[in-house]
Design brief:
Largest sheet: 5 strands, antiparallel
Number of helices: 2
Number of strands: 18
Order of helices and strands: HEEEEEEEEEEEEHEEEEEE
Structural class: mainly beta
Radius of gyration: 36 Å
Helix content: under 10%
Amino acid sequence: MRNLCNILWLSLCMCLAGCNNHVFIDDYLPDVPTIQLSETDTVARIAFKSDNWDILNIYGTYENVWGVICDLEGKPDGRNFPLENGENAVIKLGYDYCDFRVEKRNGRELCIFSGDNRNGKAFDVEIVVGNEYEIKSIPVSLAPTSKYEVDSIVYDWESLSYSDNMLEPDYSVMIDNTQSTQPTSWYFDPMESSFPRKISFRDKSGWNEEKQYKCFLGTPLPLVVIPDFIDGKPVLEDTKVEFGSDSQQISNVINSSLVGKKYTIPPGEKWKISVDYLIEQYWIDYKLYTSHPFSGRKKTFEGTIYSKRPYEFYITPEKQE
C-alpha cells in the first residue's frame, strides 16, 4: 500500500511539473492589439502583462523593411534580430520615403513612433514578439502623411554662371537673283510664334530627383519664383515654375526690332540668309526650405537650376559665289 501511495505521489508531482512548464507560463500579451498610426496619432504604447518576451523580428507585410538596432541613446550597436534575454533597444526602421521607430526600454512596454509616410498609401508591418514557448505578431499600419510645404527658396548669387552670347540656328534661306536685272527684297518674318524657355532642376550630385520631390511635396509640384535677367542683371519678379521638374517649358516672347527688316539682294547675285537665336542661359545653386504642417519637421532641398531661353534673333546675309 505504501509503495502504491509513493507511486501515485510521484506521478502527481511529475504532472504538476509538466503543467508548470507548458501551461502556467505567464501570458505576456493576452490581447494582441492592432496598431494604426497617422500624423495626428503618432505614438502607440503597448502594455505587457509580464516581461518574459523579446522582439524577434520586424518585417513589412508587402515591402521589405530596413532596420537598425540601436542602444537606448539611439546609437547603432551592431545587434541583429532576434533580440534575446530581455534585451532593450531602440530600433529605427524604414522603407522608401517612410520611417518609424520602435522602442523597448523595459519588459512591460513597447512604444511605436510613426515618422513620415510619403508613399501615398498605408505602410503595413508586423512586429514579432515572444519567447521559447509562444510567439505573437503585432500588426502596425502607418497611414500616409501630408506633404511638406514650401517656406522659401534662396539662391546663391555667388554661384551664378551666366551667358548671353551663344547662337543656335533657326533656319536659312537661299535667294537667287542671278537671272534678274532688278534688285529683289527679302523681309524677315519669324517662322515661329512661340519661343519656349526651358527650365530644369538638378540635385547636388547632378541628378534629377523628381520622384522624390513629388513624394515630399505632392503632385503637381509647388511653384517657385526663378530669376529673370534684365539688361544682364538678375531680378526676382513673377516668373514661376514647378520646383524639381526634370524638364519644363514656359512661354517666352522675343520682342525684336529685326522683325520686318528688309534685305535687298542686288541683280545678278545669290545670297544665303541665316537666322539664328541669341541664347541667354544660366546656372545657379538654390536651397528650398520646407516644413511639415503637422509634425513641424524641416527638410531642405539643395541643387542647381538651369534656365535657357532665346531672347533675340541674329541674321547673317552672305553673298554666294
